[in-house]
Amino acid sequence: MEKGICMKKLLIVVLLGLLCALPLSSKAYLSVNDLDPQKLSSTKTFDDVSICATSEKGVSIDLIDVARTAKDGEIFNSRIKLGGTGSTAYRSLKFTAKKGEKLTIYLNSSSKTDARTLAIAKQDGTEVATIVADPDTGTVAGMGTYVFIEDGVYYVYSKNSGIYIYEIVVEK
Fold it and tell me: What does 34-56 look like in DSSP terms, one character per residue?
């Protein structure tokens, strides 16, 4: 009987250890710091996030001379250049989110003077929210957040003109 109790305790300890080892990180995550510079003319998936592009409406990933730092201390040495107005078909990022999960996106307008609007849309194109992309000061990465109210496939894209994206995180 003692041996059976010890085995159960050992099994519980092992299972707890495995649970603690499971990643508590986001459901979807993409940091431009993990990507190589490139020009995309078709959709390319990086883990749980796809960058949607076409030959006519491409997206580029390039290095920047001066790093951008967000208010939470994140530092970015590259950027995803959406290159203009987007849609669910092109110049967008696609990912899956569940109700209650939070999107955090690091971004800037490609303009040094004008803020731009980033749309968050469902797969059918229905816009659920927007985030303001502040002008690119040359040193600061802006941030925006949104909490999803339903499960689904979502896209983020510029409603008008270029936006730089540095990182996207979807988590509980």
Answer: GS--EEESS-EEETTEEEE--SS
Rounded to whole angstroms, the Cα distance separating 116 from 135 reads: 8
pTM of the model: 0.85
Helix, strand, coil shares, percent, the chain, to 5: 15, 50, 40
Phi, psi of 139 (to 5 degrees): -140, -20
Name all domains of the chain by residue range, CATH numbers in brackets. Answer: 25-171 (2.60.120)
Q: For 83-98, write each residue's pLDDT tens digit.
A: 999 999 999 999 999 9
| Number of Cβ within a 10 Å radius of residue 149 | 10
DSSP state of 72: T
What are the tens digits of pLDDT across the range 54-77?
Answer: 999 999 999 999 999 999 999 999
| Average pLDDT for the chain | 90
Are the C-beta atoms of residues 134 and 115 closer than 8 Å to each other? yes
Question: In whole angstroms, what is the distance from residue 38 CA to residue 139 CA?
Answer: 22
